[in-house]
Amino acid sequence: MGLKAGDVVVLKSGGQALTVAAIEGDMVECVWIGEEGELFREELPSVVLESVEIDLSDDESEEDHEEEQDEVA
Fold first, then answer.
1. Contact 23, 5 (CB under 8 A)
2. pTM score
3. Distance between CA atoms of 53 and 19, rounded to whole angstroms?
4. Tally: H helices and E strands in the chain
5. If exposure means fewest CB atoms within 10 Å of the residue's CB, which of 7, 36, 46, 69 is most exposed?
6. In whole angstroms, how far apart are CA 14 and each of 3, 50, 51, 62, 71?
7. SS3 for 45?
8. DSSP symbol at 13
9. How far apart are CA 22 and CA 24, in angstroms?
10. Are 45 and 29 a contacting pair, CB within 8 Å?
11. Strand pairing class (39-45; 49-51)
12. Alpha helices, DSSP H only, in 1-73?
């Protein structure tokens, strides 16, 4: 699969994005933030994960747009 620390992955069955923290053999240690801001860390077999790309440009554009609206108001 070619994963490295810092990559973003999801479970093949779906769910939220996870960040790869470490890899040891076929096991991948992942971290993510829960709905209430708590940090989770779990070791998962690499065969259940798939790599994804996160496009942050939309998030930044929305923030910029909100700031512009606040300045006008």
1. yes
2. 0.72
3. 11
4. 1, 5
5. 36
6. 18, 10, 12, 25, 39
7. strand
8. T
9. 7
10. no
11. unpaired
12. 57-72
- Any idea how long the chain is? 73
User: Tokens 């779990």, residue?
Assistant: 42
Residue type, 12: K
Q: Position of tokens 């747009």?
A: 65
Both tokens assigned to 12: 């093949």
CB 52 within 8 A of CB 8: yes
Exposure string for 14-46, b = 16+ CB within 10 A, e = fewer = eeeebebbebeeeebbbebeeeeeeeeeeebeb
Q: What is the pLDDT of residues 20-70, one digit of tens each?
A: 999 999 999 999 999 999 999 999 999 999 999 888 786 555 555 566 656
